[in-house]
Amino acid sequence: MVVKNISLKQRIEQPVYSAALAVFRLFFGLMIFASTIRFWMKGWIEELYIQPNFFFSYYGFEWVKPLGQYTYLLFIVCGISALFFAIGLFYRWASVLLFLSFTYIELMDKTNYLNHYYFVTLVLFLMIWLPAQVNFSVDSIRKPSIRKRFVPLWTVGSIRMMMAIVYVYAGLAKLNSDWLLEAMPLRLWLPANNDMPIIGGLFNHLWVAYFFSWFGAVYDLFIPFFLLNRKARPYAYIAVIVFHLMTAALFPIGVFPFVMIVSALVFFDSEDIDKVLQRVKKRLWPFVPVAEMPTLYTFARFQKKLLQSLFIVFFVVQVLMPWRYLLNEGELFWTEEGYRFSWRVMLMEKMGYAQFVVKDPATGRKVAVNNNDFLTRNQEKMMATQADFMLQYAHHLKEYYQQQGMKNPEVYATVYVAMNGRRSRLYVDTTTDLAKETDTWKHKNWILAFNDNIHGL
Fold it and tell me: For 209-235, what is each residue's pLDDT tens digit?
């Protein structure tokens, strides 16, 4: 028997069961809906997006402004669209609204940046264009003509690829001397959990920190490939669940572990998911139609070319973005220039102390700033270790004191930062007037040298 070689284009066009995309849509949407409710119930909307007097904007997104009390309305839109997204009701409109509302929430204040929020935003962008409503959705009940049993492989594959990028880059980021050779920062964090039942006492031992560090790096680097392997997949998914539940128990990182557990479902064989979904439908009949059209969902020729071009550009950006730090000088962990949006998860323990002084150049009068008058506790914590926060804060102080009658105020900072168990050291050139500096993609020359080495990626 001669096996015909097929091209990459033919391979990604091969049909797979649409059930995989449908189940992913359902669980991913429900997770966002639950997270929105959680935010509301815990009072975090008020605490994070309404109470602060000042918000740190992302570079290039300064036009995104806080909405005050209307933030509650934004969360309502986000929650309802997440629910509609999950059940597949008015899916296209719901996916667009969910992407826009969720992204706007995240852009209001970069103090609240988390890798998994960024991941959710990217996945939601992809889902706008995918036919996730053709199976197990309210839309497919309303419009039987859209029911399809199969979709092209690249639609499901795009979500898998996004997951793989997250994991592999998180693993590559752990290939550094602090993480592997010093077990930092886990050797600082794990002993704080020594009161955990049964295994808590182990966290006092240094070898456990090394084990967790090395296991974490290996896990991130290889787990997507094990999930892609049919034989290894069940065991790999068990590893996903155990790993992320352990992470959730040890560290206060919100819903990130559950995001990854839910998202990893997309790696399961679409035929297996289809079988499970058919059983579920039979139990729900007559509320949910059991049968779909046994045909492949097809895009119009122009639409397919446009979408595939869009996805190629999207993934090229995702592959290159984590490497942008190579364009800057200095140690990445120290400057954090290019640190965000690069899947560097929990790699360092960083603490800072920042004292700002505003000087009136006309009179020579100096005012020592009380950061509590301008920033929340969490904002001050983030500002004291990240240079772009410091710069934005300095410009805010300049504007404030100008309004108080001071002409062309100068803003100076004395900042000390300690990182991964090292002694605290001066971070900012104290002679630099930060009010005159501008934020760019380039290296900030007023950040003092790290004077140490962290080897690795």
Answer: 999 999 999 999 999 999 999 999 999
Question: Smallest Cα–Cα separation from 171: which of 101, 224, 109?
Answer: 224
Answer yes or no: do 159 and 192 share one domain. Answer: yes
Domain check: are 300 and 249 in the same one?
A: yes
Q: Are residues 165 and 212 in the same domain?
A: yes
- pLDDT of the residue at 295: 85
Q: Cite the beta strand spans of 259-377 per DSSP E.
A: 350-359, 366-368
**Per the structure, how many domains does the chain have?**
2
Task: Evaluate whether 152 touches 13 at the Cβ level (below 8 Å).
Answer: yes
Instruction: Classify residue 99: in a domain, yes or no.
Output: yes
Domain of residue 353: give its range.
Answer: 340-436
What's the burial of 84, exposed, middle or buried (CB within 10 Å: 0-12/13-18/19+)? buried
**Do 304 and 354 lie in a common domain?**
no
DSSP 424: P
Say yes or no: 262 and 367 in one domain.
no
**Does residue 197 have a cis bond before it (omega within 30 degrees)?**
no
Measured between alpha carbons, how far is residue 362 from residues 227, 313, 358, 365, 435 in Å? 66, 52, 12, 8, 16
Q: Is the bond preceding 409 in cis, omega lying within 30 degrees of 0?
A: no
CA distance 251 to 349: 13
Q: Is 424 left (phi over 0), alpha (psi -120 to 50) or beta?
A: beta
Residue 48 and residue 130 share a domain: yes
Q: What is the DSSP letter of 268?
A: S
pTM here? 0.93
Q: Give the residue carrying structure tokens 């009072």.
A: 43
User: Each residue of 53-109: pLDDT tens digit?
Assistant: 999 999 999 999 999 999 999 999 999 999 999 999 999 999 999 999 999 999 999
